[in-house]
Amino acid sequence: MSDPILFSVDDGLARITLNRPERLNAFNADLAHAWARVTVEATTRDDVGAIVLDAAGRSFCAGGDVLDMAHTMGSGADIHALADVINTGIRALTESSVPVVAAAHGTTAGGGLGILMCSDYAIVGENSKIGSLYANIGLTPDLSVSAQLAHAIGQRRALQLVLQDRLLSAQEALEWGLVAEVVAPERVQARADEVARFWLAGAYGAYGQAKRLIRSQPERAFAAQLDEEARSIGAAFDTPDAKARVAGFAAASTRKEKA
User: What does pTM read for this prediction?
Assistant: First the structure.
């Protein structure tokens, strides 16, 4: 049996690959526990500066494995417990200061929508489809869908998505602000890698802290957020990377003025 998640780290780039292609990468217990373990590791390692979240097979993630639910889950308590496990990984990615890019090819549905929104920058293919579809089987949103969807696209559009069996096209998802880029299907993985390498080639620590500030803002009142911004930029200014970049910018500006 293959591992339900593949994980590797190469030169600062962590890659997390959902690996149940035969079930459209839908979550069962094995995938849930592997997801929780790998995401926590990826976001706490000192040698990781960016994360690519992708998937094997023809789709990104179909949410929960409905067949597995029907055959192995005896009660709502079982579903609740499994969702808590997956939520550990969702919190690890969204609360960390490591930027995450998703390569979300094919279809993303149900809880897969929450997995997609764990990323800070999502790439999809021109033929991708994204939807909720929970109510089709009598279930309600989980895996951060109700927590993140309205923040991402607005309450009215979030309601449109969860109250219908609609699948957004890639272009609609882009127009709604749910994804960052739409590319040719065969370019999804490569483009996600390019984005991650862009972060790593630059001030990836600053990108990570910018992500943290945006992600954590709902926890704070306006004045508290201003205080946190001021604290964060002060801490960033004291880092060797920022000192070198600021000095380089100043030197270049001086040379330009003298030219």
Answer: 0.94
